[in-house]
Amino acid sequence: MRRKLVLLLALFSFAPGAGSAAPVKTIVLDGSTTVGPIAKSFATYFTRKYGVRVSVSESGSGNGAKSLINGSCSIATLSRPMKSAELAAARTKGVNPVANIVAMDGLAVVLHPGNPVRNLTKAQISSIYSGRITNWKQVGGPNSNIVVIQRESNSGTAESFKDLVVGKGVQIKGSAETQSSNGSVKNRVSSTLTAIGYLGLGFVDRSVKAVSVNGVMPDVKTVRSGTYPVARPLYFYTNGQPAGVIKQFVDLPKTEAGKGMISELGFVNR
After folding, report:
1. Is pLDDT at 11 greater than 90 in this prediction?
2. Which CATH code for domain 105-231?
3. Which of 10, 192, 215, 232 has an alpha carbon 20 to 30 Å from 92's alpha carbon atom?
4. How does DSSP assign 147-197, residue by residue?
5. pLDDT digits (tens, 9 = 90+) for 154-167
């Protein structure tokens, strides 16, 4: 009987949400669309190597935090730190969020490839998003009204962009168009000659044009060195210090395989 019990337990993978050893079959991740490509790449690798099923959802950083607090995910993926209100809500439920940095990311300010503007200052970008600058000719571009594209309020990327560029307390213009993901922002900008938007560095391709900010282009070198002024860490949040297979998963960025996946996706290793 004892041998049968041991064999049954061996069929389960341990995926602690709070460093517990409760046997579960699946590691569940939820949160940021920016961290999504890393999470999915890690998930495929981890399942193939260890036989542990990994589920990845991309409902936004805010919802990822809620999922961790409510116990519906093992790991919350966030593109910004958890807020003080989220940490307080976690404490009331006995949850102890622990931040694990996965990678660094540059927030690229992107235009349509046909727009001749190549550099913007942080002050100019803030003025565009707040509505003080409304025409491209005010920043050396064509005489065309600027179409401002932003992310939804639940987005960690939106919050990082506002903190790093627009400025805390500064309101984004009411006519700004809202998109739900990095991909939808890219699609909108790539099809709109007069648009401006922002993307995680790993999402930038030839369909859009990244501009320099304060004279510095966003790339792996400038993000790693800290010279690009719009960069932020990306996070895996766990409930308590990770253990077991959760720790193995969270520690992937420290491995050669994990570093390779991060680099291939266009993000920056720490």
Report:
1. no
2. 3.40.190.10
3. 232
4. EEEEE-TT-HHHHHHIIIII-TTPPPPTT-EEESSHHHHHHHHHT-TTEEE
5. 899 999 999 999 99
